[in-house]
Amino acid sequence: MNGTTLSRRTVLRGMGAAVSLPLLESMLPRTALGAPVAEAPRRMAFVYVPNGMHMPAWTPKEEGALKDLPSILSPLAEHKSKMNVLSGLTLNGARSLGDGPGDHARSVAAFLTGAHPRKTDGKEIRNGISVDQAAAEKIGKLTRFPSLELGCEPSSQGGRCDSGYSCIYTSNMSWRSPTQPVSKEINPRSVFDRLFGNEVDVEKQKNRAQRDENRKSILDFVQEDAGDLQRRLGAADKAKLDEYLHAVREIERRVEESEKLHTREIDVPDFPRPEGVPADKDEHIRLMFDMMVLAMMTDSTSVLSFMITNAGSNRSYRHIGVSSGHHSLSHHGGNREKLEGIRKINEHHVKQLAYFFDKLAQVKEGDRTLLDNSLIVYGSGIGDGNRHNHDDLPILLAGSGGGAIETGRHVKYKDETPLTNLYLSLLEVAGAPTEKLGDSTGKLKL
Predict the structure, then answer these.
(1) 20 to 30 A Cα–Cα from 271, which one of 291, 296, 302, 407?
(2) CA 203, CA 199: separation in Å to the nearest integer?
(3) pLDDT digits (tens, 9 = 90+) for 139-162
(4) Can you tell me the distance from the alpha carbon of 26 to that of 94, in angstroms, rounded to the nearest whole number?
(5) Computed over its alpha carbons, how large is the radius of gyration of the chain?
(6) Is the distance from CB of 343 to CB of 280 less than 8 angstroms?
(7) CB of 193 closer than 8 Å to CB of 248
């Protein structure tokens, strides 16, 4: 499309389908000489893992430039120039502060809010506004969805989970207000349909029924629109659009295959096949990361959160040689075998994160990549699972927010520096400046 600019909000439409597009060269504003100006939105994503970390195998030995990564972070070696390991950050709101035990519940509730949640297993819950929702309030209107909240285990609406704390605290880290948690979506199919479905409910239902009945791809419904757009694009954009549509179809196929593995087909006429989350836990994580990539690259949202499991998860990882439960192992008491089990689980989670980074790095946006244009926080609200400490947390920041942050470093901050100070800095980079969040005392130098 020489000399013209395609709207960033262009979508491919068909009955009940609305397929948003990645950033194409034709969407970039142009200089007076007609050259594209490389501009892209800055995305924020927050990824949480439970039960702390085996810190000796997480923390780089030296400050400054990242050289040899410790074993837990080794799967990210290819991306070390695009990330920072941040040490010395503290989550004071996760401490007991006179409320006794309940560190797992507090570690999740405080992770994005910096608040100290009210200890209750009743209706009188109270926490704080989370960083993702603070961002969504300011920049969410620029995208189809103000934010997306994802996970691999369901959010709870009540009950007692951790030493007198409501299960609401242990299973929700995103909070729209001090009394309103935002439940997460755990089914990849539901996220896919939300991203690529028409806003009209009746049309969405017809589209889904036709797809199920005829085994059609969502792309089958937008072929005409896609063909018309292809004829208007330059060679580079045509290739990028083809690559993107192929990726969408491949993810759609994997979602369908994971559902088949999760449920058994019932040979009864017109009996709807039930749907559920993938039986393979690693595939579940990867599919949710795929949904995040699709949401970010199509500018469907710029704010995401993802809980790999809920607080205190005792899931076992037999497929990597760890038969004991994660939470049980985290109370290692210095036992070498248990510490090695924790290290293996931590490294396994980072391997899934590397998959996410790989996908982001493959998406070109002007002179940068989707990873470059993002701000991704990965970590836990507990340091060592045996100590249940909330200082010197395991925090990784990936992406530079479009070049705003120097990367490739291990940065050690002064002890007791609030984690929320990091969030203030990220909010400013993302175009959603906020003066105060939880226990913040000022912005970090990044």
Answers:
(1) 291
(2) 8
(3) 999 999 999 999 999 999 899 999
(4) 47
(5) 22
(6) no
(7) no
Q: Residue 415 and residue 326: Cα distance in Å, rounded?
A: 28
Beta-ladder partners of 85: 396, 410
| Contact residues for 359 (Cβ-Cβ < 8 A; gap 6+) | 289, 290, 293
- What ranges in 82-130 are assigned the alpha helix state H? 103-111
One of 3.40.720.10, 3.40.140.10, 3.30.230.10, 2.40.30.10 is the CATH number of 40-186+282-429, namely 3.40.720.10
Longest dimension (CA), the chain: 66
User: Two tokens at 254?
Assistant: 């994997």
CB 31 within 8 A of CB 42: no
Question: Tell me, what's the pLDDT at 201?
Answer: 54
CA angle, 377 then 307 then 313, to 5°: 125
Specify the pLDDT at position 5: 66
- Phi then psi for residue 383, to 5 deg, are -80, -90
Distance CA 46, CA 175 (A): 13
Contact yes or no for 410/392 (Cβ under 8 A): no
Let me know: does 134 contact 169? Beta carbons within 8 Å. no
13 within 8 A of 222, measured Cβ to Cβ: yes
CA-based nearest residue to 45, from 132, 115, 111, 130: 132
Q: Distances in Å between the alpha carbon of 222 and those of 13, 154, 226, 354, 372?
A: 5, 32, 6, 32, 30
Amino acid 26: pLDDT? 82
Q: What three-state secondary structure class fits 190? A: helix
Other C-beta atoms within 10 Å of 145: how many? 15
Q: Which neighbouring-strand residues pair with 378?
A: 47, 396
Tokens at 191, concatenated: 């996220």
Specify the pTM: 0.88
Kindly list the domain boundaries of the chain, sorted by start residue.
Answer: 1-35+194-276, 40-186+282-429
User: With bands split at pLDDT 50, 70 and 90, how would you rate the model's confidence at 270?
Assistant: very low
> DSSP letter string over 333-364?
TT-HHHHHHHHHHHHHHHHHHHHHHHHHHHSE
Q: How many Å separate Cα 319 from the centre of its chain?
A: 24
Interatomic CA distance for residues 416 and 241, integer angstroms:
47
